[in-house]
Amino acid sequence: MAGRAARLERRGAAWRVLDDAGDELAEAETVVLAAGWGAAALGMAGLQAVRGQAGWADLDAGPAVGAAWGGYAAPTGEGVLFGATHDRDDTDEALRDADDLRNLEALKAVLPDLAVRVASVQVHRHAAIRAATRDRLPVAAGWRRGCSFSAGWAHADSRRRRCWRTMWRA
């Protein structure tokens, strides 16, 4: 399948996956949407956009272990991945200098020595949109007959007794 899925259409017992021009990319009896925030454009309701920007830096010696505190620092084998911002209802994927500063300040507050090292080298960065649910519980759903969807697993809160919900709609 080459192209970007823009919509789904039911045809008999099968689903047609169409691009922006209406050309068929694929046809199948079962479709599983693993599209993150892109699933909202395909008609999956109840999702919230959460923009995130992370940075990574190549270091002679990155951290030995990862740390998470509301932000995170994860060893990459060649340095560290750190971040990330969480901006709800923001769908702009443009890179932001202010978010780089937010991420570095968060790193500095918890791992100041690592932050000094990161600030002394080139930081690479990436921004993307996550799919979250408004109640922060993950969703695994039979969305339409023969079409399933899963999202929000990163937002599951194990301190609550409800870790995930399953919604089945025929």
Summarize the structure.
With 170 residues, this protein is of the alpha+beta class. It is built from 3 helices and 13 strands; from the N terminus they run ββββαβββββααββββ.
Describe it.
It is a single chain. With 170 residues, the protein is of the alpha+beta class. Among the domains are: 1-31, no CATH class; 48-131, D-Amino Acid Oxidase, subunit A, domain 2 (D-Amino Acid Oxidase, Chain A, domain 2), CATH 3.30.9. 15% of the residues lie in helices and 41% in strands. It has three helices and 13 strands; from the N terminus they run E-E-E-E-H-E-E-E-E-E-H-H-E-E-E-E. The protein has helices at 38-41, 97-110, 112-119; strands at 7-11, 14-18, 24-28, 31-33, 47-58, 67-68, 72-75, 79-83, 87-88, 123-133, 139-144, 147-151, 165-168. The strands form three sheets. Strands 5, 6, 7, 8, 9 and 10 form a six-stranded antiparallel β-sheet that branches. A four-stranded mixed β-sheet has the order 4-12-11-13, with no helix packed on it. Strands 1-2-3 form a three-stranded antiparallel β-sheet, with no helix packed on it. A hairpin with a 5-residue loop joins strand 2 (14-18) and strand 3. Helix 2 runs antiparallel to helix 3 (112-119).
